[in-house]
Design brief:
Layout lengths: L2 H13 L2 H8 L3 H15 L4 E2 L6 E2 L1 H27 L5 E7 L17 H11 L3 E7 L2 H9 L5 E7 L17 E14 L5 H4 L4 E2 L7 E4 L5 H12 L5 E5 L3 H9 L4 E5 L9 E5 L4 E9 L6 H13 L4 E2 L7
Parallel strand pairs: 3-4, 3-5, 6-13, 7-11, 8-9, 8-10
Antiparallel strand pairs: 1-2, 5-12, 6-10, 6-11, 6-12
Helix pairs in contact: 1-2, 1-3, 1-4, 2-3
């Protein structure tokens, strides 16, 4: 009996589907099926009922499943214990982050350290710990955290989302711990000659209705903040072009493809910036990690370092008028 066979069995039992389990395990479906059949032959019993559309546990499978999970948990504990004795000299942390905004702080935050700066400081203290960085949407990263494919993630949230049950934020945060890092207002970056660029003073969010907008995809914190602000003003967005990161949004606006809604890019953008009001859309950046399992020592060390580097959410002031 091998630990990998138990892992395959537990994953199939959790998702009720060989194909989905193989995707999560980054293996072929026949390979997963073959290993589970070997486990069944060794135990002398069928663990999974494969006759229906969904894979179900047999009575023996139901009895074996808690022991399989306990064996995997014990193996993980053994690995963590060995790493602790190793003095954190080696390890890897899988870190997810929303595109663009996580690495470079907005100009309005001044000396606020970006994520790259903070990771570099941690690496000096722990040169044997490596990182794998993956950019993705908040929604997909939350799923990866729950499935164990990410250890930590830097995500974007609507302002209201706190992670507490009963609030009006994302209920998808249940089962995850949330540490806010910063909060920034969104502004409108207008293409050259655009009607909204001519006026002075703050721009009501409702005035964006009817104009082609440039924003991030649905499911991102920035897009959700924009949609909520427009809904509160009785309007709806017309997003003509989507891009993954604020620098791309600014470039698309510079080419006349629409009004970009993003954190204030500063004078470097070279385009008219309008403050938004009524209400001011804000996006929050937060550090998130699972609460259902103890983190591996390298992850725990990085988490402590990040929470010390960002002890409280930093709120960007409203950018100056242009």
């Amino acid at each position: 009996m091998e630990l990998r066979q138990l892992q395959y069995f537990v994953t199939v039992a959790q998702h009720g589907n060989f194909t989905r389990a193989a995707e999560l395990l980054h293996l072929s479906q026949p390979g997963v099926s073959a290993q589970i059949r070997r486990l069944e032959r060794e135990l002398g019993h069928q663990l999974l009922d494969r006759t229906g559309r969904a894979v179900r546990l047999t009575r023996v499978g139901e009895a074996v499943l808690p022991h399989a999970r306990a064996a995997l948990a014990a193996a993980a504990t053994a690995r963590r214990t060995a790493q602790e004795f190793d003095g954190l000299r080696r390890g890897r942390v899988r870190l997810g982050m929303i595109a663009g905004a996580a690495l470079t702080p907005p100009p309005a935050l001044g000396t606020f350290p970006g994520l790259a700066t903070t990771l570099a400081a941690f690496r000096q203290e722990h040169p044997g710990i490596d990182f794998s960085l993956a950019e993705d949407t908040t929604a997909r990263m939350l799923g990866c955290l729950r499935e164990g494919r990410l250890d930590l993630a830097v995500i974007g949230l609507p302002t209201a989302a706190s992670g507490r049950e009963g609030d009006d934020g994302w209920t998808a945060l249940s089962g995850l711990a949330l540490h806010p890092v910063l909060e920034v207002p969104l502004v409108a970056l207008c293409p050259p000659g655009h009607p909204l660029a001519a006026a002075d003073g703050p721009l009501p969010v409702a005035a964006l209705a009817g104009h082609a907008l440039v924003s991030t995809p649905r499911g991102t914190g920035l897009r959700t903040a924009l949609e909520r602000a427009l809904a509160a003003s009785g309007a709806a967005p017309t997003v003509a072009v989507e891009a993954a990161a604020p620098p791309q949004l600014a470039e698309l606006a510079a080419h006349g493809l629409g009004v970009a809604v993003l954190p204030d890019p500063g004078p470097a953008a070279g385009l008219p910036v309008r403050l938004l009001t009524g209400p001011v859309p804000r996006v929050r950046i937060a550090l998130v990690w699972p609460t259902g399992r103890p983190p591996e020592p390298p992850t725990a060390a990085l988490l402590a370092h990040l929470r010390a580097a960002y002890p409280a959410p930093c709120r960007a002031g409203r950018p100056g008028r242009r």
